[in-house]
Write a structure and sequence with these properties.
The structure is a single chain. The chain has one domain: Jelly Rolls (Sandwich), CATH 2.60.120.10. The protein has five helices and eight strands, in the order ααββββββαββαα. The strands form two sheets. A four-stranded antiparallel beta sheet has the order 1-8-3-6. The protein has a four-stranded antiparallel beta sheet with strand order 2-7-4-5, with no helix packed on it. The chain is globular, with a radius of gyration of 18 Å.
Length: 161
Amino acid sequence: MPSNLDLGQLRQIGLFGALTEEALGHFVDSLEVQEYSPGQQVFVEGQQASEFFVLLNGEMEVLKKSRAGVEARVAMLGPSDWFGEMSILDVQPRSATVRALAPSRALRITAADLDALYRRDLKSYALVVLNIARELSRRLRVMDSLLADFVGVTEQRRTGG
């Protein structure tokens, strides 16, 4: 049973955008809230996964290992951000490590929770998946822009311009 989770809180999170009161209520009744201390890892790059998380409060960092084995921070997460969804969608191991920077609470959503939503309420399931796709698209656009800036600077240095 979740602790201190309510419909109003879920309504403010983009993942749950356009869901009915009934669908939100089911999430409030069924999803688990987990607490994390500063420095605690939510998950580690390379792990198998069957869940993702919505940060309710606190702050977390996303860390990715380079080919040389150097761990680099690639993102910061705050309230209403969700993470770990890639492993649910593509059924691949975790692509990064996520660690709490401050005391944090996160809503845990498993593949079984999504499957139950699919079987119970196809429209709500489609909205959640569409909201995930929109966020992934937004992130890809940001990364494309960063990559273009990096390549442009690198090319400028190479040509001496």
